[in-house]
Amino acid sequence: MLNKITVAVDAMGGDNAPGEIVKGAVDAVSRSSEIKVVLVGLESAIKDELSKYKYNPEQIEIIHATEIIHTGEHPAQTIRSKKDSSIVVGMKLVKNKQADALVSAGNSGALLVGGQIIVGRIKGIDRAPLAPLVPTSKGVSLLIDCGANVDARPAHLLQFAKMGSIYMENVIGIENPRVAIVNIGVEEEKGNALVRETYPLLKEMKDINFIGSIEARDIPTGYADVIVCEAFVGNVILKLYEGMGTLFMGTLKNVLKSSLKSKLGAMLIMKPLKNSFKKFSSEEHGGAPLLGLNGLVVKTHGSSKAKEVSNSILQCVTFCEQRISDKIKESLFENEV
Amino acid sequence: MLNKITVAVDAMGGDNAPGEIVKGAVDAVSRSSEIKVVLVGLESAIKDELSKYKYNPEQIEIIHATEIIHTGEHPAQTIRSKKDSSIVVGMKLVKNKQADALVSAGNSGALLVGGQIIVGRIKGIDRAPLAPLVPTSKGVSLLIDCGANVDARPAHLLQFAKMGSIYMENVIGIENPRVAIVNIGVEEEKGNALVRETYPLLKEMKDINFIGSIEARDIPTGYADVIVCEAFVGNVILKLYEGMGTLFMGTLKNVLKSSLKSKLGAMLIMKPLKNSFKKFSSEEHGGAPLLGLNGLVVKTHGSSKAKEVSNSILQCVTFCEQRISDKIKESLFENEV
Question: How does it assemble (chains A, B) (predicted)?
Answer without folding.
Answer: Homodimer. Probably interacts with PlsY.
